[in-house]
Every structure is written in structure tokens, then in C-alpha cells.
């Protein structure tokens, strides 16, 4: 039956019921012309008249050309070659998983080209039997897949001094969430016969992780805190890692600041104290108001942001809008998200419309009827430890304005009377 006949084939009683329902829904007022269209048979869609493109036009699939504007972008120009970042277009995405081509990138020395057949992972230091692993060795160990967010500790640093005017991609886009597949760190340490430093409270078992890139990114990590959750991964969202995200191997430390998730991983060394590398002394420490530095602030604190509507979006008519966003915590799951549409004077509970997973993005949504008046939209996350996302004033009071990293304050978007959404 050609598609044009399906509409008129509806029995007239159910057609009348359908039209009554459309009228009752209020859609008729705003879409009168569209509703009137339904009274006559629909035309055959132009795209139904001829066969479409063949299979294998794109042996590796690509998004619709109509989505060409959805891409990673950089917030600023970087002064040194290879040291740069690109940001995930959060305002254009749905659900909680970041597609591989849109995962943010942060490199300190560019993206190395590594032959997986030549690549080795060394596990050495205070272990019983130091070993070199090939990629094939790693693929023959028990695998595990887990969904975790990855956030650069510099994410949202643009807002320390107040609203930057930037859209959500450029304020919060050093954030992605993937399903990571690889080998548990604990399995690998068993493979080298175990660790020969006494572990437990007060002891000093640390793990030095180093990348094979030009920056030789190197971080020391407290072994006790990461042993149960860290993964050495070779795949993201079902396929091998992308070169820019660490191909062929990277470390995933769930909930810890992005830079500890060392890409192009070439060695793990068990040591008895942190090595005070460049990335934990001159970088990735925060200068506090009392003049001391906050070092080894590993966990990313609970945070949330509204992604739709967000700056760059425009509300076209008054009426119902879902407020949609994401929330996450480096210390566990998201317990609740509250939303305000009046600048924080009143709050109400949002629905969590994805399963709240451990150290992963959670999608929330709240109903809102825009009455055309200027509004201010905010979201506030509470995590499973009871920690509540702070206001900017509270965060600045605690950390001062010399802290570049770990900005997690409540974010406000203004809705103007003309429907424009702004970070102001
Ligand atoms: N070897 C190496 N690992 C690295 C980096 C790097 O420059 N080199 N950048 C780190 C930083 S600062 C972040 S935020 C994350 C970014 O991971 P992504 O590019 O996969 O999003 O990787 C971390 N791991
Ligand atoms: Mo980072």
C-alpha cells in the first residue's frame, strides 16, 4: 500500500478521535496549519519516490550532513605546539554516552602515532616479577567494561571570575563519558606477582603512570585508593581507543581528574611515595587563599549543568520546555538533582532519566512552562556521599581566586524576554 493511503485508511471514528485529541492537546493553537494538514491524505514523501544511497557509501559511518555543526571546538588558542584541548559539544548531545568522534581531547605534547604491535606496557618497581606486556598479552587477560566520565580538572575554569558569556561546550566541554574496556589494574598487579610494599593505612604504596607521548605525561597515584576501580583500557564505546584518546592503551582512574588518566600508557611503576613530577608540583596544584597549595586533589567533586536550553539555544514560543542536563560525581553516584528557574530562590527535584551509575554521567530532566518573562535556570547536584554542589560564592570563599582547577559551582543560564539563552 503506498504511504498516501495509510492516512485515509484510518476508520473515520478513530480519525475523529485523533483530531479531537490533537485539538485538546493545545498543539492546534500553535500548529493550526499542521493540524489542518492531517485532515487530508499525506503526500508521498519525496524521499520515498526513489531508492536511497547504497550500503557501504560510508564503510565507516558518519553523522548526517545536517549535523555538520556538531563538532569539537577549542575555547582558546594555545601558545605551544602540541599542547592544546578541544571540547565536547554538550549542548548538542543526548543521553549520557559521548560518541567517540566527539570525546574532548587534551594533549600536552600532541597525538603520537604508535604501532600497537611494537607497543609495550612495563610493570616494574616494587613488584615481585617485573614484566613487559604486549597488546596481545593484554587481550588475553580477563576484560571488564565500565562506563565512566572523564573530566579535565581545568574544566569550567572560565567561570572563576563570574559568567564568561561562553556556551556550555566551551564552559563545561572538557567532559565526556564512555564505556571503557580493558584489564583491571588489580589483575595486572597479580600478573607481576603482587606488590612488595606493605599496603594499608599509613603505608606508602603509590603507582607512577607514564605516557609514551612527547610530554611523557607522568603522575603518581595512591595505590590503595585506585586498586579496585582503575582499568588499563584498549577500547572505548566498543571499538579500539581513538589515537587522540590514547591508542593503543590508556589508564582509566574512575572519578579522578582527567590528567591522571594517562594516555599512550607505557609503564606503571610501584613506588613507596609520590614522585613529585612536574604534573603534580608546577601543574595540577591549586594555590589557596592562605598561601598553601592544594596538591593531589584527585576526585572530581559533584557537579551538574543544564545542556538544553543553554546559551546559543533560543526559546521560540511560550509554553512547555523540558530542562535537560547532566550530573556527575567523582566520589560515587548522583543521588538527586534540583532545578531552579528563578535564579535560585526556589528549587524542585528533577527526574533522573538514566540509571545513576558510579562515577558516570547521569541525565536529568525537569518540566518547565516558560511564561515569556526573563528567567534564570540553575541546576544543583547532590551525590551519594551527601555532598551538595556549591554556589560560586561558597566555592570562591573556600578556594580563593588563584585556584585554576576543580571549578564545580552551580551554573546559571539567563533566559531573556526574547527567548535568547545567555551565560550572563
Ligand atoms: N600521555 C598523556 N596522557 C594524558 C594527557 C597527555 O597530554 N599525555 N593529557 C591528560 C589530560 S590533562 C586529560 S584532561 C586527559 C584527556 O583525555 P582525552 O584527551 O582522552 O579526553 O588525558 C590525560 N592523559
Ligand atoms: Mo586535563
TrEMBL record:
Signal peptide, first to last residue: none
Ranges in a coiled coil: none
Keywords: Metal-binding, Molybdenum, Oxidoreductase
GO biological process: sulfur compound metabolic process
MF terms in GO: heme binding; molybdenum ion binding; molybdopterin cofactor binding; sulfite oxidase activity
Cofactor(s) needed: Mo-molybdopterin
Presence of keyword Plastid: no
Domain Oxidoreductase molybdopterin-binding: start-end pairs: 108-276
Boundaries of every Moybdenum cofactor oxidoreductase dimerisation domain copy: 297-411
InterPro entries: Ig_E-set, MoCF_OxRdtse_dimer, Mopterin_OxRdtase_euk, OxRdtase_Mopterin-bd_dom, OxRdtase_Mopterin-bd_sf, Sulfite_DH_SoxC, TAT_signal
The keyword DNA repair is annotated on this UniProt entry: no
Domain of life: Bacteria
NCBIfam families, A to Z: sulfite_DH_soxC
Name this protein carries in UniProt: Sulfoxide reductase catalytic subunit YedY
